[in-house]
Amino acid sequence: MIKDALDRLSAGQFAVSYGLFRQAVLTSPRQAVAWFGLSQASARLPTAADKAFAFAERALLTLDGHERSRLQAEVFRNFGQLLQQRPSHAHRPSAKTCFQQAVIIAPSLSSAMLAFAATGAPTDRRKWLGRALKSAPSRSNSWEVAGELGRNGGDISAAKKCYRRALILTPSAYHSQTFLGIAQKSLGDLITSTTTLQRAVIMAPSYLPACTTLGRNYLLQRDFKRGWEFFEAEWRHHNTRPDAIGHDLPLWTGVPIPNGQLLLWSDDQIGDEVLFANLLPALRKHVGSLTVAVDRRIVPYLAAALPAVEFIAKTDQQRLRQAAKTASAGYRLEFIGRFLLDDATQLPPPQALLKSTPIMPPERKRPRVGLSFHSINPTIGDYKSIHLTTLSPLLSLPGIDWVNLQYGDHEQEIASTAKALGIHIEQNPDADQIQHLDEFLKRLATIDLVISIPNTTVHLAGAMGIETWVMLPRGPGQSWFWFDDGEQASWYPKTRLFRQKTPLQWDPVVTAVRDAMVDRLP
């Protein structure tokens, strides 16, 4: 029975193997291999995944000195992988300890070496990665994992070589094909990345990472028709909606509902909500009434700008539930362009939607230039952010009153940079768009020019019609709505784009911004 179960597991028949392993442990509860197989099978079944950890623990408890060393190593490796997926308790070992134990028991087990490499310091990572690849040079999975370690460690070029090696060994490895496309995009090669991801989607049409990344690539190139189709794949697959709305509200199909109500909801931050609000006037023509759930802080500003649209706070569960009951259909705000943008000619004209009464600063003769340089986005924030010292050539220009518009606690970095350059940067702790949006907008209205990386500050300044210069990253930090070319933003007036040519290289961008500032100064 166990041999049959292991064969079924290897063949990807997880439900069948799960049933066979359950029978095996009921018959002989002291068989470690049966508990190990049960853990492996359950981890791959959505209905049983929460039991995988308990089964892995049981496999460890039933191991004895007579078990074959490779099985012991596999059990420890499996347990370590499960530990990485959920918080550990004090009495449990760390994932790294489990991987290390697996390598000690079976020094030739390449999967254990790769897992151990992923948890080690950079020097150890290289050593164990090399050993793993030497141990199993013909396993495409080893090269794929090596590529992931390289990509996560920032060595994208090395990762790309590993993915190519994996594809030579297994041309149908759609994971490696997808990761190769992502690596190519990270290196700034958008065209090649798109071609690679097209092949990945042909290999595995339902593989969501390939679909969504390909969708972003198409949108970056203004290929809206294909872009929306792939970009929405993950959301449509999971069919996620706010709990207050429920799944009985049908998704809008784009067919006009002149006598019906359309409900939109947002899963993004304030900046993106402000940007996509540009599409609402065109959308309003297709429906009887339009209700949009956004961040509560931006509700009064968008309501004043677009009185024909009802805005509600997405945290107001009662109003959201009521709107869902009366709505004919619903959709996510971030994807509404699917029904409005077939090509770049249909982009709405840039407009300044937001207005605020400025807090007048003391009388001045020099331009007030606001500065923002950091993003807290958990996925791409590091690629978008820039160290303040990198802006030194710009900050050293005379005749400018610099104003900090950066949210979060960056006081020490700002103070040390200002001291080193012998300049003053105005601080306004109460004007933080995260904590005090009203005060921030009033302060923002006093600024002559905003220079920022693409974060919430840019969207707010651009939507207020303030002259704004955006320092755009290339590669992983690119958001599709800035597109891949052009010097003027498509969404906001008076918004100029300064683009990286090479990912992570900010110096040429800073030089270009500095030169533009020199031309702008009297």
Short descriptors:
10 strands, 6-stranded parallel β-sheet, alpha/beta, 522 residues
Question: Could you please describe the fold and organization of this structure?
Answer:
- Helices cover 49% and strands 10% of the residues.
- The radius of gyration is 27 Å and the shape is globular.
- The mean pLDDT is 86.
- The chain has helices spanning 2-10, 14-27, 32-43, 52-62, 69-85, 95-105, 110-119, 122-135, 140-152, 156-169, 174-186, 190-203, 208-220, 224-231, 233-238, 270-276, 280-284, 299-305, 317-326, 381-384, 392-395, 411-421, 437-444, 456-463, 507-520; strands spanning 257-265, 287-294, 310-313, 329-332, 368-372, 401-404, 425-426, 449-452, 467-472, 495-499.
- α24 links the parallel β8 and β9 (467-472).
- α7 (110-119) runs parallel beside α9.
- The chain is α/β, with parallel strands linked by helices and 522 residues long.
- The chain has 25 helices and ten strands.
- The strands form two sheets. A six-stranded parallel β-sheet has the order 7-6-5-8-9-10, sandwiched between helices. The chain has a four-stranded parallel β-sheet with strand order 3-2-1-4.
